[in-house]
Design brief:
alpha/beta; 7-stranded mixed sheet; 12 helices; 12 strands; globular; binds pyridoxal-5'-phosphate
Length: 401
Amino acid sequence: MGTSAQAGNQAATEALVSLAEAVGRQERGFRFTRPALPPLGEVVRLYEQAYKDGLLTNSNLVARLEGAARERLGVRHAVAVSSCTSGLLLTLKALGVRGRVILPSFTFFATGLAVLWNGLRPVFADCLESTWNLDPEDAGRRIDGGTGALIGVHLYGNPCQVEALERLAARTGLKLVFDGAHALGSLYQGKPLGGFGDAEVFSLSPTKLLVAGEGGLVATNDSTLARLIRLGRNYGDGGDYDPELPGLNARMSEFHAALALEGWELLEEKVRRHNQIAAHYDRLLQAQPGLSLQQVRRGDRSSFKDYSVLVDPAVYAGGRDLVGSRLLGCGIETKRYFHPPLHRQKIFREYFDPQGDALPVTERVSSRVLSLPIYATLADEVVERIAEAIAELGKTTVVVG
Ligand SMILES: *Cc1c(COP(=O)(O)O)cnc(C)c1O
C-alpha cells in the first residue's frame, strides 16, 4: 500500500469518526426518515366532532380533504382512498385496462402489484440515465397490439417526462396513469402534479411527505373515472346493493383524513426543507468522482421524498453496499431505493424475458443506488459530515470493510 492510499484511509477514518460524533450530538436517536406530524391536539380537535357524531369513515373530513386536494392540485376530481396501492388498483380497474401494462422496473413494487391484482401482464421498460424515470422512447418500443396502458412513476418526487408520455399515450390510444406516491408537493414546469394522464395517484403513508397514517388520493379530470373510483372504494356499490364493478373496501377513515388535513399545512415547508437538504448534498457531492446524482429537469421541482446517489464500484471498492455499511457503523441508516428492481423480484421475474428485453440503465442504477437520510429536522451538520465521509471513502484505494 502506497503512502497516498494510507493517507486516504486515514482521512476516511477521521471523516467517519467525526460523522459518528455529529450523530451522537443529535438529541434523539437517529433514523432514516422521521415523519413531521402536526400537533396531536389540532388533529384531535378536528376529529372530535366526527367521533361524537359517530361518523368514522368516508364522511365530512374525507370530503374536506378531497376539496383541499382539488384546490391545491388544480384538478376537477380527487378521491380519497385507503392507500396509493388500492388507488392504483382501482384506477386500472375503473379504466377497464386490458392486456399488457408498460411500467418502469426501477420503482417500488406496489406499482407492479396493482397490475398483477388486475390480472394484467407487466412489461418492464427502462429508465433514463439522467432522471432515473421511465424512458418514453424505450416504453414506446415495447408497445404492441396487446398493450393496454402505461404507468409512469415520479421517482422520489422527480416529475417524469409527462408530456412525452401523454403524446405517446395519445398516439397509441393507451391509458396513462402516474404513480405519484412520492410526488405531493412536486411541480412539473411550475404546475402541481395531479392533472396529467388519465389519473395520478398519491400516497399518504408514514414515509411519504403528507402523512395520513395510511391513505391515498386519486386525482383526475375525468368525471366518469372519478365516479367509478368512488364506487370502487365502496365495494363497487352505488347504494342499490348491485355493484357496478368489482370494488374493494378502500375507503379512508375520518381520523386519517383529519391527520392529512392538518398535515397539509406543513407540506410546503417540508418540501422546501427537503429541497434545501438535497441542494446541500448536491453541492457537496457533485464533484466527487465515482458518484452520480439524479437530475431534476429545469423548471421542475421534486418533492425529494428521497435523495439518492449512484455509487460507481470502479471508484468505490466494495461499491454501494460497503458505503452503506460504513455509514451504518456511524449510526447513519441508508436504503437502497429501489433494489432489486421489479424484474428481478420473485413475483415479477416470470414476466421478464432475459433474452429479449434488456434493461441496462435499470440494472446499473439499481445496483448502484444508495438513498441517504432526508427529513425536515435533519441537521445541516449531519448532512455535511455524511457527504464528507462519502467523499473520503471514495478516495481510499483498498477495501476498508
Ligand atoms: C409507497 C409507494 C406506493 C404505495 O403507497 P401506499 O400508500 O403505501 O399503498 C406506491 N408506489 C410507490 C412508488 C411508493 O413509493
